[in-house]
Amino acid sequence: MARRERVVRMSVEQPLWRALTAYRVLTMGYAVLLFVFTREQFERPWVAVGFLAALSVWTLATLPKVAGAAGCTTRFLVADLTVALTGIMLTPLADVHAQSFDGPTLPSIWTAGSVLAYAIKGGWRWAAFASSLVAVANIVERGEPSRDTLHNVLLVWVASIAIGYVVEVARASERTLARALEIEAATRERERLARDIHDSVLQVLAMVQRRGTALGGEAAELGRMAGEQEVALRTLVAGGLTRTSHVSEDESLGAVVREVEEPDDDGPADLRALLARHAGARVTFSEPGTPVLLAPAAARELAAAVGAALDNVRRHAGEAARAWILLEDWPDEVIVTVRDDGPGIPEGRLAQAEGEGRLGVAQSIRGRLRDLGGSAELISVPGQGTEVELKVPRDARGKAGK
């Protein structure tokens, strides 16, 4: 029987919304009861009755709004805080002597619910804004605020900002946890696929390679191709860099099969992803364990220069040549070295090629690096292969970024 996994989406802030809903209902009832027991102290009780009636209707009607972040819109928050501030400013009108003693305002502690809604929705900055308006309204309502009034105002201000900050930290932790769970799930799926591929496809390719080599002739060529595909597939199974798969065929350097992700023009691109597609049976790619980030245009130009260097390996080093790509990430620059084990370049051959109009090295490699503010150095010793060292400054932007 197949095992089914159930994914449960956890939300650290949903309990806060439920608590806020209950708080608003309870504090609404508290404000009404407080007026009932002290109604003889009000010179204009009809003002208090009108406001508390409106407060009760508003609270009950907007319960769906505070049930989650989606319903708690900015327009609702502004309207809710306006109700609270109106109640505070109406307190002296309903009770002429309210300014002479530190009695509760008409909305009482219900006002804190409006501030908490700001904190849960927008974090500590929104909470600071809302609590500051409440503080100003309380001070204006008191006229000459006492120490107790200032103490209460400061308490609401600090508490709301603290809650808003905790909410922001909780959201960041939730995002980190969700990302970790996604990576764990992807890893488990990749391991499962690797087991299945190892038990089937890789074994078949290995068998074809052995039998083809033993038979010789055209079967040997078929065996060679099967061996290249086996190496490329093992590279893929071992774990590509990112999500989107690119498959290309290179007759001289072997099949290239790596998982890579196209860079996002809105943010830095990981150069490893662009260079990984060149890896194959005869091309070895060595990379750092952490992302190598460059501006997207610069990353694409540098990757194109590496591709041009590998093109030269295919054309001039022969089918049996191997190539190595080394990516180095330094604080102020990025260095990519492309090396092969071919026969090397005879002295004066590059100058002769430029004179004949063949500008592969001059334009495709050195030209690109010059536009990036970098450099390209070519070292070749006859009989010992060729090495191309590409250096790009960390702040390179490329043509698109100029």
What would your notes on this structure say?
The strands form three sheets. Strands 4-6-7-9-8 form a five-stranded mixed beta sheet. The protein has a two-stranded antiparallel ribbon with strand order 1-2. Helix 4 runs antiparallel to helix 5 and helix 5 (124-142) runs antiparallel to helix 6. It has helices at 14-38, 45-61, 74-94, 110-122, 124-142, 147-199, 201-215, 218-238, 271-276, 296-316, 349-355, 360-371, and strands spanning 245-248, 256-259, 269-270, 283-286, 293-294, 323-329, 333-340, 375-380, 386-393. With 402 residues, the protein is an alpha+beta fold. Mean pLDDT is 79; it is low at 1-8, 240-263 and 354-360. The chain has two domains: 14-175, no CATH class; 240-401, Histidine kinase-like ATPase, C-terminal domain (Heat Shock Protein 90, 2-Layer Sandwich), CATH 3.30.565.
- Through-space gap between termini: 59 Å
Supply Rg.
Answer: 35 Å
Strand content: 5-15%
User: Helix segment count?
Assistant: 12
Q: Please state the overall shape, judged from the principal axes of the Cα atoms.
A: elongated
Low-confidence blocks of residues: 1-8, 240-263, 354-360
Average residue pLDDT: 79
Summarize the biggest pleated sheet.
Answer: 5 strands, mixed
What's the oligomerization state?
Answer: single chain
Strand arrangement within the widest β-sheet reads: 4-6-7-9-8
| H and E order | HHHHHHHHEEEHEEHEEHHEE
Structural domain count:
2
Q: Count all strands and give the number.
A: 9
Helical percentage: 55-70%
Question: Structural class, from helix and strand content?
Answer: alpha+beta
